[in-house]
């Protein structure tokens, strides 16, 4: 998809348990998609495996959740944390969604990552990225 990519060591995150459905893949590079709010989580060992990510706060400013102690420990989180949502692109770009129920949480200091499932949450796995009124003004797609 990308061809050859030069990936810096500091862009590689270790997911000790992989991602749901991809438990054997434990190392991913976080690659920014230039001039867009999106990034890719690209498997280091499997060229055909990547996930589109976006900061949920960009589209849902009041998005919040409490990270459990077990997750904090597993990720070694003390202060810095990055949160992303996985994106599902729809053929009609305006219907593209992001997963708010299972955010990808990254520790940029220790380069550890985990997809965390928020139990007892009203967030959805398929939250529309663009609200209906915004969707009408989206031009050109993603």
Automatic annotation (TrEMBL):
One of its GO terms (biological process) is bacterial-type flagellum assembly. The keyword Cytoplasm applies. Transmembrane segments: none annotated. Keywords: Bacterial flagellum biogenesis, Chaperone, Cytoplasm, Translation regulation. It comes from the Bacteria. Coiled coil: none annotated. It is found in: Cytoplasm. It holds the Pfam family FliW. Gene3D superfamilies: BH3618-like (2.30.290.10). One of its GO terms (cellular component) is cytoplasm. Belongs to the FliW family. Acts as an anti-CsrA protein, binds CsrA and prevents it from repressing translation of its target genes, one of which is flagellin. Binds to flagellin and participates in the assembly of the flagellum. Interacts with translational regulator CsrA and flagellin(s). This is Flagellar assembly factor FliW. The lineage of its organism: Bacteria, Bacillati, Bacillota, Bacilli, Bacillales. The gene is fliW.
């Amino acid at each position: 998809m990308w061809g050859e990519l030069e990936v810096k060591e500091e862009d590689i995150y270790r997911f000790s348990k992989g991602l749901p459905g991809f438990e054997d893949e434990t190392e991913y590079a976080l690659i920014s998609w230039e001039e867009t709010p999106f990034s890719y989580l690209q498997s280091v060992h499997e060229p055909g495996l990547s996930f589109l990510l976006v900061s949920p706060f960009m589209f849902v400013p009041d998005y919040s959740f409490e990270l459990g102690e077990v997750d904090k420990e597993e990720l070694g989180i003390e202060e810095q944390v990055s949160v992303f949502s996985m994106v599902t692109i729809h053929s009609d770009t305006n219907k593209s969604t992001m997963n708010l129920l299972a955010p990808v949480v990254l520790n940029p200091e220790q380069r550890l990552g985990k997809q965390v499932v928020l139990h007892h949450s009203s967030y959805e796995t398929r939250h529309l990225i663009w609200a209906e009124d915004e969707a009408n003004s989206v031009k050109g797609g993603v």
